[in-house]
Design brief:
The longest helix is centred in the C-terminal third of the chain and has 21 residues. It is built from 28 helices and no strands. It is mostly helical. The radius of gyration is 27 Å and the shape is elongated. Among the domains are: 253 residues, Serine Threonine Protein Phosphatase 5, Tetratricopeptide repeat, CATH 1.25.40.10; 167 residues, Serine Threonine Protein Phosphatase 5, Tetratricopeptide repeat, CATH 1.25.40.10. α2 packs antiparallel against α3, α8 packs antiparallel against α9 and α21 packs across α28.
Length: 612
Amino acid sequence: MVDACFRRRHFGGGGLLVLVGIFLPAASLIGQTTPGAAHRKAPAQSRSTASAPLPEEVQRKLDQLLAELKSARAVGNRSGEAKLLSEIGDLYYGVPNYPEGLAAYNRATILAHSAGDARLEVAAMNGLAKNQPRLDDSLALYQKALTLAKKSGDLQGQATALNGMGSVHHRKGLNSQALGDLQRAIELARLARDADLEARVLWNTGIVDGDTGQQQAAMDSYMQAMSIYRAAGDDHRVAATLERIGVVYSAMGDQQQALRDFNDALPILRAAHDQFLEVDALANAAVVYSLVGEKQKALEYFKQTLVLLRSTGDLQSQTDILSISVILLQTGVVYADLGEKQKALDCYRQALPGLRAGGDRVNEASALEDMGMVYRDLGERRKALMYYNRALPMFRDARDVNDMALTLDYIGVVYRDLGERQRALTYYNQALPMLRKASDRNGEALTLDYIGVAYDGLGEKQKALANYKQALPIAIAVGDPLLEAGVYRDLLINCKDAQPALAIFYGKQAVNSLQQLRDKISGLDKKIQSTFLASKSDYYHDLADLLIVQGRLPEAEQVLDLLKEQEYSDYVRDKEVQPGDPLSLTPAEQEAEKEYQRSTAQWLRLGSSGRS
């Protein structure tokens, strides 16, 4: 059965989790942008950079604005003062330095009102709203700005206020209201012929769509925004949007395209000194590398993320502590996949206090769930069930359908382990439609495999086989070698009595998937490599035993040599092959592999053709 340690969690919108949030340049994302389930915290909780030196280009711009502000004051130009103070507020918001931004917007609002300039007052009030630590205060100010903008016929002010309201409603979990606000904002931005504002609203729309599982809608919004930024020659925002598009590709199962997008965005974000989005891109790439079996790269990228957070952040800041905790959580997931259960538990335990203190209920639930997975792997099933049952209502309260479905799966796995297969099926059958609705192809394949295992245990071989055959092309298509290996191994177990030759083919495919993973972690500590191999030894033994029964002794010896590290090294040296080389296939097996490649390609073309 596919290992229960399965977590596809990222940072940012579209089913991905935020670390430090999305910060484009000053005045870029108007409104409290909230990409992802672990939202960027309200300004009072966010990174405080008041004592840190400003980036050189920001300081230069600030000096220029302060000089202009002094001149405007000298001649009593209140409207000019208000406009410059709003720009200063935008600059501080983008750093971010919320206390200074709040002071600038507050002064701008007062001056614009006294000057009778409604448009400037609306702009300053929108700035004031996005700097509020309390969502209800923020919403009230956006509403006030919207009313004033309507009264004065200010289309841009209305669109900006609605964009901010949509973002706040999203943070409050009111996604239908959020999408309604944002759709009205897009229409008004277009009427105002303000392409930059339109792109900002499209960006936020993509975030909400992604978080609610509407990945194609999110993709459409981001693509429209990117077209606008490309036309404007704004490489920084193109890169920021590319990172979000990578998030959506990953959620839709195209991990290789996601990695291309993250890695294309990274050098541009670094050149722009956007360390906030660089953290998101690094962390998201790490999660995807882990998903496609590149565990060594995943650990390297998580390490880079932690170094960047610790070197640039405020380690007393609740938000930075939260960000580090999320990375520790994800690092634990990689160690769990490598079979390093104690290292995984250590990471989860380090992460939990920061997640709780930061109010990140979704990631707190994830940590509890992941601890449950480790305890289940250690044979402590009742303890695992306790952790899963603590996590489930937290995901439900957060309206996190995807993780709620996966937790139902994991609860089903424990009941299956306890011999209660019918009860396990009730949990799997609850999870499957939820995962399909969320377009979670990894989760769908995992659940179909779990259902197959349950039917196998009940002696219903044909029902089991039907589910495995639905799971396999999805597992191959999403490029998750651990998932693929697990499904192939379950097919071996299902077919070994009735069709031993076919079962051997499945077993070889399972081992070859693991060989790819071993090759990709060859740079890690030898102890970690040994632990990973030991955690997967049943895959090799199942295949070797069947080969021996069928009298195919040289092939069985090859499999066992791969399992024994010293013999494996000798085998590699004697045969002059690389560690990741696959097991050889017979001509019939090669034809079977081609057939699976064809069926997978067909599944990709037809999308849902493999679903019942």
